[in-house]
Write a structure and sequence with these properties.
Length: 506
């Protein structure tokens, strides 16, 4: 991570705490690793992101419905899904720093460093050749770049082989051969690579009754698969159709050093799309396109997204791609789009003894549907939104401000209602306006401190508009509307307010 961006993450963490977005969990007891609480502004931003997703996936898609399955599920669910046997991460410790890493992440970070070297060569050449620079040709022919590319391909092939065969000794040899050092101690003094299951287990029922082992779900998807038939029958759903849900998932993550990017308790927004076998590649491409367009429509910068196709397919997938976002730590997975075949439904058929089929009346046959999944972490989306929105600006008068240029539909508050001063009947008038608007959208009222300070506060929590009520308001029924991003102020009548604001933030 570049120094400057490391600072950005630190600033976002500090800002999130100072302005009530995210707090460390149970902070009075010094917190709990990789667990966080959302504060008054964070909770609302989270609700808005969830709603923005739900509207796109459920409300706007006629053939997708939403459910809300329980966190606890029958333990056999996780045997069938493969999580009991295969939901493992390869972990490795550095004996000097005593820090623990995911072996695959160490190798991926090493690859990212080599990619960085390629980018440097490209930037140097672009500068040297100016307008006549042909990047594609350079990357394909420059001997140094070709050597780096070959090195990356070699590492990726060895990592894939080691992961596919579960050969952890090969993984360690790869780390040693590449001379990968611990980022903390700088040493190559590694332990062996070991497998570590990420599921949290607990017991249901009292011990006297013979308690049963259950797991906190590590993904929400299985709640959808076990309800496939319930929803298909009761909703009279016709293939192709989807089932969506949002909810908590739990993973005992090995490393937990990146704020809300990797948490042990987090929230997912998932959708399983049930299709006819054989049509999965077309639907996979369609969902990749739909999802990337959804992200880009938010306006966080199209250059901040890219696809990363998986080399190491999970046991259930025949194609998989991540939408990566340019986080302060670099491009990292934000959402996964997976072609899950009929793996899950078939596995649940086998373990439950119940048929999970679809009768296709056009083809006059029954089959187990194939599935395309879209899976996004709500907390990661939250971090993406914060990191693209956080800005430090130098103003013309020499002062500075921190502004969160949150997309208006996501902002915790859309409108701040501020009486210029807290007397002369201005608070009463402001409350009147607030009482009108608060049934339309999220509003916040503030009368403490100078108007300048209050504007800065609203900028810092990302409120797109502030309405200021002054003495002129009492005379002619107009108020000032201030735009968060441009800081431009416009005088408009109270009657026109509602229509104008609705048009701006919807
Ligand atoms: P990673 O490789 O980063 O561990 P993953 O490939 O295991 O992620 P999936 O199982 O595909 O992730 O989960 C789908 C989505 O859930 C991810 O794209 C991510 O946004 C989110 N997610 C997964 N694990 C976490 C976590 N520990 N904390 C926050 N979000 C997570």
């Amino acid at each position: 991570m570049a120094k400057q961006d490391e600072n950005l993450l630190k600033k976002i963490i500090a800002h999130s705490k100072e302005y009530g977005f995210v707090f460390p969990s149970s902070e009075i007891y010094d917190g709990l690793g990789a667990v966080y609480d959302y504060g008054q502004n964070g909770a609302q931003l989270k609700i808005n992101i969830r709603q923005y997703w739900w509207k796109a996936m459920v409300q706007h898609e006629e053939n997708i419905v939403g459910i809300d399955a329980a966190i606890f599920m029958h333990p056999t669910t996780w045997k069938a899904s493969g999580h009991v046997d295969a939901f493992n991460d390869p972990l490795i410790d550095n004996k000097d720093s005593k820090k623990r890493y995911r072996a695959d992440n160490l190798i991926e970070d090493h690859i990212a460093k080599i990619e960085g070297k390629i980018n440097k060569e490209v930037a140097k050449a672009a500068k040297r050749f100016g307008d006549s620079f042909d990047q594609a040709q350079f990357v394909d022919t420059n001997p140094r770049v070709m050597k780096y590319k070959e090195q990356i391909e070699g590492i990726e092939a060895r990592m894939k082989a080691a992961l596919d065969s579960g050969n952890l000794a090969d993984m360690k040899t790869l780390i040693e051969d590449e001379g990968i050092v611990c980022p903390i101690s700088g040493s190559r003094n590694w332990t062996d690579v070991r497998q570590f299951n990420l599921m949290f287990g607990t017991e249901i029922g009292s011990l006297a009754e013979g308690a049963n082992k259950v797991y906190l779900r590590p993904e929400t998807a299985q709640g959808i698969f076990v309800n496939y038939l319930n929803v298909q029958k009761t909703g009279r759903m016709k293939i192709p159709f989807g089932i969506a849900q949002t909810g908590k998932a739990f993973r005992n993550e090995i490393i937990a050093r990146q704020f809300i990017f990797r948490m042990r308790e987090f929230e997912q927004m998932e959708m399983q799309f049930f299709i006819k076998p054989g049509e999965e590649m077309a639907w996979y491409e369609k969902w990749k396109e739909k999802r990337i367009n959804w992200h880009k429509a938010l306006g966080l910068g199209e250059e901040n997204y890219r696809f990363h196709d998986h080399l190491n397919l999970a046991h259930y997938a025949n194609a998989a791609s991540d939408i990566e976002f340019n986080f302060p730590m670099g491009f990292k997975e934000l959402e996964g789009i997976h072609s899950r075949t009929d793996f899950d439904l078939k596995a649940h058929e086998e373990h439950s003894g119940k048929k999970l089929r679809y009768f296709d009346s056009e083809e006059d046959r029954s089959y187990v549907p194939y599935v395309i999944e879209t899976s996004i972490g709500l907390d990661r989306m939250f971090l993406a939104v914060l990191s693209a929105s956080y800005k430090e600006e130098q103003l013309e008068d020499g002062s500075e401000r921190v502004v969160m240029s949150l997309p208006a539909p996501l902002a915790p508050y859309k409108v701040g209602v501020l009486p210029l001063i807290a007397k002369d009947g201005l608070p009463e008038k402001a409350r009147e306006i607030m009482n009108e608007l608060k049934y339309e959208t999220e509003c916040v009222y503030e009368e403490k401190d100078s108007i300048g300070k209050r504007y800065r506060r609203q900028d810092a929590i990302g409120t797109p508009f502030c309405i200021t009520v002054d003495h002129q308001t009492l005379e002619d029924g107009t108020v000032t509307v201030r735009d968060r991003d441009t800081m431009a102020q416009e005088r408009i009548s109270i009657e026109a307010l509602r229509a104008i604001l609705l048009q701006k933030y919807r």
